[in-house]
Amino acid sequence: MKALNSRRVAWEAARVLVEASTAETYWWLNDMVGRYLGVMYQLKLAETRLRLTENDELTVAETGTWRARLDELLGDRPDLAPVLADLTRETAARLP
């Protein structure tokens, strides 16, 4: 198994999570985020959805916020990198 670059995983995950936050995929993703990353990340995803529903010009800012948030998570829990990478791939596949 090849080693995962945690910063790359965080960046790609942030991009996909923000994109999915305003798509129909959100409902599935919200459950998966709660299950694998925890309820605080699930709440943050809901906040992202609300902010982007009100103002879609915040996409870049939300992506940057998620990148930092996930980078910190993977710094503390590097064991979650494969889980987050898989979640990102599955979410991207579910996007229209």
Count of DSSP strands? 0
Question: How many individual helices?
Answer: 5
The share of residues in extended strands comes to under 5%
Mean pLDDT: 96
Which residue ranges are poorly predicted, with pLDDT under 50 across at least 5 consecutive positions? none
First-residue to last-residue Cα separation: 30 Å
Mind telling me the C-alpha Rg?
A: 12 Å
Order of helices and strands: HHHHH
Structural class: mainly alpha
Question: What does this molecule look like?
Answer:
This protein is an all-alpha fold and 96 residues long. The mean pLDDT is 96. The protein starts with 5 loop residues before the first helix and ends with a helix. The chain is 77% helix and 0% strand. The protein has 5 helices and no strands.
Write the layout of secondary structure elements.
Blueprint: H1 6-20, H2 26-36, H3 39-54, H4 59-76, H5 81-94
Helix pairs in contact: 1-4, 1-5, 2-3, 2-5
How would you summarize what this structure contains?
The protein has 96 residues and is an all-alpha fold. It has helices at 6-20, 26-36, 39-54, 59-76, 81-94.
Features:
globular
